[in-house]
Hints:
Elements: H1 4-14, H2 19-41, H3 59-66, H4 68-101, H5 107-119, H6 122-135, H7 142-165, H8 170-178, H9 183-212, H10 215-220, H11 228-238, H12 242-266, H13 268-277
Helix pairs in contact: 2-12, 3-12, 4-7, 4-9, 5-7, 7-9, 8-9, 12-13
Amino acid sequence: MVTASASRNAARRHYRWSPALLLAMPGLLLLMLPILAVIPMSFTAGQVVEFPPAQWGLAAYRDLFTDVRWGQTIVFSLKVAALAVVMSVVCAALAAIGLSRARLRGEGFITALILAPLAMPVVVLGLGTFQLFLQLHLTGTLLGIALAHAVIGVPYVFLTVRAALSKLDLALVRSAMSLGAGSWSVLRWVYLPAILPALLSGALLAFVVSFDEVVIALFLSGPGAITFPVKLLTEVQFNLSPAIMAISTIVFAVVALSLLLGVMLFGFRRTVFRIAVKE
Length: 279
């Protein structure tokens, strides 16, 4: 019989840092240095981006918060991402549930069609979407950009929901139906509790993909429909100012705080595992 102390020792050996990971840490830190260099550049007092800054100050942050265009693009990106998440979650969840229940001869083709945006070059997808939405008068609109982002968000939600459905016991579905439950009742009381964590994970992935996407949004953007990544890209190209470093530092701080919160809630190894496997 395995004692409690032996189990604890085995757990410690399981969670011990591997030599390969320790050897990889210098390389990972080297990859982080360009990102960390943005932080001091955001605290320059001048109007020129330089490292290290000749004078220190908060002028970049004052310029950032006084420019209402940055706030407008961030709010617009949040609206686009929220709408894209709703559409991608509904479409992907229904598709995953439908394919799990039905045994179709073309199931593989349908699955490949759903996952096609993952393999298709984003430039090709953006150009095709632009040509189609131009005929439908959806370019330069919130709905048009959200629809395009939902297309690239559907595969992420579909994969997470399908993985959750693979662990669902179909006997529960048959039992609910034999007791008189209709399709909506089965969906509400059987499928939804089983796939809810996967739905939340997929929705988070779809939100991040939508908020970070720049190529398709660049094709579909208009005077009143500019997302935050498009605004950031155009500013880097035509108006490289310390305000760009300030907004980049804020985004980096938000990501770092989110990672720290995940470590506090789930522990370091579980948080890294969730990010690595996109759960």
